Amino acid sequence: MLEGTIIVSGLPASGKSTIGRHLAEAMGGPMPDKDDFLEALFDEVGTGTVEHRGRLSRRADQLFIAQASSSSSFVLASWWRHPKADSESGTRVEWLCT
Fold it and tell me: Of 18, 27, 46, 95, which alpha carbon lies 20 to 30 A from 3's?
């Protein structure tokens, strides 16, 4: 896991970004939020179909992971996918332990 990093998870609209931003501010560090990347992609190319949104979500995951992996992030907020989940929903977690 990234040293000194707090992982915030929760269902959509559960308050993870709000809590994460407060934690990051108190710690004096950044808070990459997967939803920020996804919203930027929606603004750029639109939301489209369910399949299109899924592709954008996976791309947002890649951007989120790249930024978090290349910085000393303190708080990371996303809906994290349990490693044993059957669904593709959520950000994968395996990279957190590397």
Answer: 18
